[in-house]
Specification:
heterodimer, A: 392 residues, alpha+beta, 4-stranded antiparallel beta sheet, 3-stranded mixed beta sheet, 45% helix, 14% strand, globular, B: 364 residues, 15% strand
Chain lengths: 392, 364
């Protein structure tokens, strides 16, 4: 049945998450201004918080209610801050790839490490078939020799190892791309710098360089060395993992935008402007009318993201919906945060408050995990019943 | 528990209404628009489905079905997908009937509800919209003054749907300290019903202007009697219904643009292969999905004991803007053909432009 009321248990979990988020928020500005300091593994308040806020029992990952609940919890966490948590999350994006595609042996050996995922290169972003980092097999030593450069590697500094995308045969396009497990400290694997960014500065984003870096033959993720024919379906499996991560990145941005709305509503209230949902154009203050418009954009995006997650929980296909949620949220969070700045004026851009930071932080939403343009391509292909070749 | 899953019954309603709208409403949309009228047989055909009577208790002759605004929103989207003007017309009596059902006194229910459980189409209208700029449903200029044992109504209403054939009007007016609704018979003294108004869109639906010059109504004719009524709830229901119609309309535009753009060749390929067109279609789809979710969310709160004011307002704000954007861009996708009356898109644009500003004109 169509229903939008969270269960009592979920409501409790959300409330607890909000309390934790407010603690994290106190540290948000510090780690934004001090870009190269890493947020601590756990905050000083963590023990006291745990003692005063008993954990709320949660459904298992296989439970159908899990994705929607996780989506809302993600929004609340990011409503506090993009990066800082009471306890730092341990795994990286590479851990998801390992559990999805690794052999049992690989999962046992690498599963306890924090694994980053390195896909993007200076010359390729939205089109991963252009990956040019190469892997060449040295049959004599049974080793792969890796050469190339990676950028925007999330958790790249903190990670113990990386799942690296490299090509066995560039002429094979997507079919030649394989993933490799590479440990930090392997000769030829350098981490030259942490990226300097517009927002999410506390987030650990690194650049990697591989120069004749040799790794054991068995480090090819999944173990399959065959090069698929150009544009065979093999790549699609990789892209499928986006059906959950796309709504998730939407939820992250929406959490920041929600913080912006709450802050703006409070400031308007201080200034004597109340949001009146029953007043019309003839009686409403322009700032309040504008606020309602922004709030409606946020609400539309939030529901659309929860819908994509709900479908995943029900085991229904959500390819279109996950792109809709990500594409919609990408535009929505830009409009909402920038609109809030417009309402508050100079106060909105002051670094004494977090609104300007949330605005910078959530600008990435429309870029990573597939830009807004990529989402529109996917949606349009779905609507028009087109393949990649028909519409690109 | 948060869920976007329709019940089996809702799926059935959706499917049945989709077919009905496709077979019976869509083919007549253009003709009704050009003629500025809807044939009686068509109204009767929809009446026979029992949309209005099913949710009325059996004590008054109705079908006794439970009322769910979410189900109604699903139904309205499908009807409007067929034709928005016809959809507006066929649900007009329901807005009146449901106001009585939800907020009327026993005597009012007894008097009015049986009118909607007969075999012949029966029209009665809610009069909320007012002429002149900045008409606000919750801040009417029409006033109700206390006089002796009743009320005296003065003011004007416009866009009163099917007012040319309505037996009664539910007139929203301002009292000294509240906004209330009053039941006015068609032949009430001091009430002047205009000839059908000339509107930009929804031309098939006849709408009238009401001029109320010191129209007397008895105290029993105030909706809810002594207790009065909750006009906010009435308006919230109306907002949700209007939004649901606009979602159906938007989907109609998108679904018309898709095959058109695949057929239309420019510079040696279908225009759908150009990103400027394909991305526009993608955005139309994104907005249709987002709008529907807002409508469902608001609809789920239009229930006794819940306040839907915030959600209905958010839906209205978003849906009004985006549905007009979709219809407007639908014209652009068709180019010159979007401007020609051989295609329905220009008509849907006029419908969207109209439906998005006449707040209070419909409900279910």
């Amino acid at each position: 049945m169509i229903d939008f009321t969270p269960s009592e248990n979920d409501e409790k979990a959300f409330e607890r998450a909000r309390a934790a988020a407010l603690i994290c928020r106190k540290y948000a500005r510090h780690y934004d201004e001090n870009e190269h300091e890493m947020a601590p593994e756990s905050l000083p308040e963590t023990e006291e918080f745990d003692a005063s806020h008993p954990a709320v029992p949660a459904p298992g990952e296989g439970d159908s209610s899990y994705p929607v609940r996780m989506m809302r919890l993600t929004m609340i966490n990011y409503w506090g801050d993009y990066t800082v948590r009471l306890r730092r999350e341990t795994g990286g994006l590479g851990n998801a790839a390992l559990s999805a595609a690794g052999t049992e042996e690989q999962r046992l050996k690498w599963g306890d490490l924090c694994l980053a995922m390195a896909i993007t290169e200076p010359g390729c972003g939205s089109d991963p078939s252009r990956v040019s980092t190469s892997a060449v097999l040295d049959e004599e030593s049974n080793e792969w020799i890796l050469n190339g450069e990676k950028i925007f590697v999330t958790t790249g500094i903190r990670a113990d190892a990386v799942v690296l995308w490299a090509t066995l045969d560039k002429s094979a396009g997507r079919g030649g791309i394989k993933s490799f497990l590479v440990e930090k400290g392997t000769p030829g694997f350098e981490v030259p710098h942490k990226e300097k960014k517009l927002g999410i500065r506390a987030d650990d984003t690194a650049a990697y360089v591989f120069r004749d870096c040799r790794i054991p033959r068995e480090n090819l993720l999944g173990g399959d060395e065959t090069v698929a024919k150009k544009d065979s379906g093999g790549f699609r499996g990789v892209m499928k993992t986006f059906n959950m991560t796309r709504p998730l990145t939407a939820a992250m941005g929406l959490g920041l935008a929600e913080a912006a709305l709450d802050f703006t509503r409070d400031q308007l209230h201080e200034a004597g402007v109340e949001i009146d949902y029953s007043a019309g154009l003839g009686t409403q203050v322009a700032a309040a009318e504008k606020f309602i418009r922004l709030e409606s954009i946020w609400e539309a995006s939030c529901l659309t993201t929860l819908q994509a997650a709900w479908l995943a929980g029900e085991g229904k296909p959500n390819n279109m919906e996950s792109s809709v949620s990500k594409g919609h949220a990408g535009s929505a969070v830009r409009a909402v945060t920038q609109g809030c700045i417009e309402i508050l004026g100079a106060m909105g851009i002051s670094r004494e408050h977090l609104l300007e930071k949330w605005t910078r932080d959530c600008r990435i939403t429309d870029i990573y995990e597939g830009t807004g343009e990529i989402q529109r391509l996917i949606i349009a292909r779905g609507l028009l019943d087109y393949t990649r070749a028909d519409l690109n | 528990m948060i869920s976007f899953g329709m019940t089996e019954e809702q799926e059935l309603v959706q499917e049945t209404m989709r077919e009905f709208a496709r077979d019976e409403l869509r083919p007549h949309g253009r003709e009704c628009d050009e003629n500025s009228s809807i044939p009686d047989e068509l109204l009767q055909l929809v009446w026979d489905l029992g949309l209005t009577s099913t949710q009325i208790p059996s004590a008054y002759g109705g079908g006794d079905e439970p009322r769910s605004m979410v189900t109604n929103a699903i139904l309205l989207e499908e009807l409007a997908h067929g034709d928005p003007a016809l959809a507006l017309a066929v649900v007009a009596p329901s807005q009146f009937a449901n106001a009585i059902l939800d907020q009327g006194t026993d005597a009012q229910k007894k008097k009015y509800l049986p009118l909607f459980c007969t075999e012949r189409f029966h029209a009665a209208s809610v009069a909320i919209v007012e002429p002149g700029p900045l008409s606000e449903p919750l801040a009417p200029r029409t006033v109700a003054e206390v006089k002796d044992d009743g009320w005296v109504l003065s003011g004007a209403k416009s866009f009163v749907v099917l007012g040319d054939r309505a037996s009664h009007f539910l007139v929203v007016a301002r009292t000294e300290d509240a906004v209330e609704a009053f039941l006015v018979a068609r032949d009430a003294e001091g009430l002047t019903i205009s000839a059908p108004e000339l509107n930009m869109g929804l031309k098939g639906v006849s709408t009238v202007r009401l001029d109320l010059e010191r129209v007397s109504v008895s105290s029993e004719d105030r909706l809810g009697g002594e207790a009065g009524c909750d006009v906010v709830a009435l308006v919230n229901g109306s907002r949700v219904a209007q939004c649901a119609l606009l979602v159906g309309l938007s989907r109609a535009v998108l679904e018309y643009c898709i095959p058109y753009s695949k057929d239309r060749v420019a510079f040696d390929e279908p225009i759908s292969k150009k990103q400027s067109i394909a991305f526009r279609l993608a955005e139309m789809h994104m907005e249709c999905e987002a709008m529907r979710n807002l409508v469902w969310r608001a609809a789920s709160r239009v229930e006794p004991g819940k306040d839907a004011t915030r959600e209905a307002r958010l839906a209205r704000t978003y849906v009004n803007e985006k549905s007009v954007w979709i219809a407007d861009n639908g014209i652009q996708v068709l180019g010159g053909h979007g401007f020609i009356r051989e295609h329905p898109v220009e008509m849907w644009f006029r419908h969207a432009r109209t439906l998005s500003v006449v707040e209070g004109a419909t409900g279910l």
